[in-house]
Design a protein that fits this description.
333 residues, alpha/beta, two-stranded parallel sheet, 40% helix
């Protein structure tokens, strides 16, 4: 009997990583999941997964900034999904060195381990923020890179390393560039959980930053399927390439708040908080994806509308046990 393929996931304890872990198990994989080492032995969102999922998951504590941790995670893996990253844009203004350590050096450690171990496939995670404000729409993978925050710059650095390892050493890397993913388990640093969390906690005056930017919001289950698609698709179709994952639709933050109010059947009053505004030249005003390359290579398409995804997210936050995990009354950076 052939054993199930082994997938290794960095950043598995996080929002997208925990959903990807579920998706991998559902598709027949064993998963070795790295959660960042901490003295509480916390496994993050992995602790909330169903027992029938966790029986196929080996959880290890480690850190992508440590080459030994990374190599131990990746030994014997058929595919490695590299999601570990510092992701909050506001905090990147305060701690840019930390972002380089994790998002650049951490990625280098993953690439070096893949090169040394002969890992059959490595899926590297990028971000739509590397494009900056859209110069042409929809945004294809050939759009210029314009990093408007230290976070975006650190992710672009990791992307360039991934490209260079494929070109220099033949490392079988594929890069997935998700646009704005949302859904259950997302942190309050993102706009959708910020709004839904405040409403679920009883607030009717919502505090946000700039309401003008537009984003292409993709439900997390669809993003997880995009990772699986490039991790298991034919090598000749995906290896050495970068793929956008998004819906092709866009909505402004202001219109999004109104839609959330509709889904939650609640009238909302929005107040702008200057503390939540990005520096003027750092704000990305428009992002909307062209994911046709991913569809052509793998057949992936989003399976949820924005309203459907919001309804699932609202259901999650309305569960008192879930809401209790969040600090809805402060600005989470």
């Amino acid at each position: 009997m052939t054993s199930a393929p082994l997938a290794a996931v960095t950043g598995a304890e996080g929002f997208i990583g925990s959903h990807l872990t579920e998706t991998l198990v559902a598709s027949g994989h064993r998963v070795r999941a790295m959660a960042q080492y901490n003295s509480f032995s916390s496994y993050g969102w992995l602790e909330t997964l169903a027992p029938d999922v966790l029986e196929h998951v080996e959880i290890v504590l480690g850190d992508v900034r440590d080459p030994g941790s990374v190599r131990g995670l990746m030994e014997g893996a058929d595919c490695v999904y590299h999601l570990a990253a510092l992701i909050a844009i506001p905090y990147s203004y305060q701690a840019p060195h930390s972002y380089v350590d994790t998002n650049v050096t951490g990625t280098l450690n993953v690439l070096e381990a893949a090169r040394s171990l002969g890992t059959p496939r490595l899926v590297h995670t990028s971000t739509s923020e590397t494009y900056g404000t859209a110069q042409t729409v929809p945004i294809t993978e050939d759009h210029p890179i314009n990093t408007q925050s230290p976070y975006a710059a650190s992710k672009a650095g990791g992307d360039r390393l991934a490209d260079s390892y494929h070109a220099s050493f033949g490392t079988p890397v594929v890069t997935l560039r998700p646009f704005n993913t949302f859904g259950p388990r997302q942190s309050m640093r993102a706009v959708i959980p910020t709004v839904i969390g405040q409403v679920a906690a009883g607030e009717r005056t919502i505090t946000l930053g700039d309401l003008r930017p537009t984003r292409d919001f993709t439900y997390v289950k669809d993003t997880a399927r995009a990772f699986l698609a490039v991790g298991t698709g034919p090598a000749e179709q995906v290896v050495g390439r970068t793929f956008n994952a998004g819906t092709g639709g866009e909505i402004s933050v202001g219109d999004l708040v109104a839609l959330i109010g509709k889904v939650m059947d609640t009238a909302l009053d929005v107040r702008e908080d200057t503390e939540r505004l990005r520096p003027a030249a750092s704000e990305v005003m428009r992002l909307v994806a062209d994911a046709s390359r991913l569809t052509a290579a793998t057949g992936w398409r989003p399976g949820h509308t924005l309203e459907e995804g919001l309804a699932h997210t609202v259901e999650f936050f309305r569960d008192p046990a879930n809401l209790a995990r969040y600090k809805t009354g402060i600005y989470n950076i």
